[in-house]
Amino acid sequence: MDKELLPIGSVVQLENSTALVMVAGYLPVAPSRPDYIWDYSGFRFPIGFTDNDAVYCFDHRQIQVVYAYGYKDIEEDIFMGKLMGAQGRVADMVKSGQAGPAAHRAERAAAPQKSDKEA
Questions:
Q1: Is residue 6 part of a domain?
Q2: 117, part of any domain
Q3: Cα–Cα dist 48/83, whole Å
Q4: CB burial class (10 A; 0-12, 13-18, 19+) of residue 10?
Q5: Per-residue DSSP letter, 15
Q6: Which end of the chain is less congested by CB atoms within 10 angstroms, N or C?
Q7: How distant is the alpha carbon of residue 55 from its chain centre?
Q8: Total structural domains in the chain?
Q9: pLDDT digit string (tens) for 15-38?
Q10: Any bridge partners for residue 11, and if so which?
Q11: Strand 63-68's sheet: what is its strand order?
Q12: pLDDT tens for residues 61-113?
């Protein structure tokens, strides 16, 4: 991730695709590649979130066209600065299993389970 990231809400077209994707998050780790940190997560535009299997994970270099830029303000600038500074720590956490799909599975396994009556 050597380029400035696009703001949340940006709409892009990825290489080898005709579908549009809206940026929804940063630095995701997908179960299909638990040792890799993508630049972005997103959803098909204009459909949005439909289910967990419809989340796109992609890198900045895969963006072919930017159709719209998301909202930017001072809070986004501050957040982006913190995100860029934390990128190395996130990578270390993923490599050690403290973040990403393996960590989420461990958290769910350790959490007390609710009965049907409690849910």
A1: no
A2: no
A3: 24
A4: buried
A5: T
A6: C
A7: 9
A8: 1
A9: 999 999 999 999 998 888 888 889
A10: 22, 68
A11: 56-58, 40-45, 20-26, 11-14, 63-68
A12: 999 999 999 999 999 999 998 888 887 787 787 777 766 555 444 444 444 55
Q: Is 62 inside a domain boundary?
A: yes
Q: Six-digit token pair at 49? A: 């979130």
Map residue 62 onto helix, strand or coil: helix
Q: Mind listing the pLDDT tens digit for each residue in 31-75?
A: 888 888 899 999 999 999 998 888 999 999 999 999 999 999 999
Following DSSP, what letter does each residue of 73-113 receive, concatenated?
A: -HHHHHHHHHHHHHHHHHHHHHHHTSSSHHHHHHHHHHSPP
- Domain extent, residue 51, equals 11-110
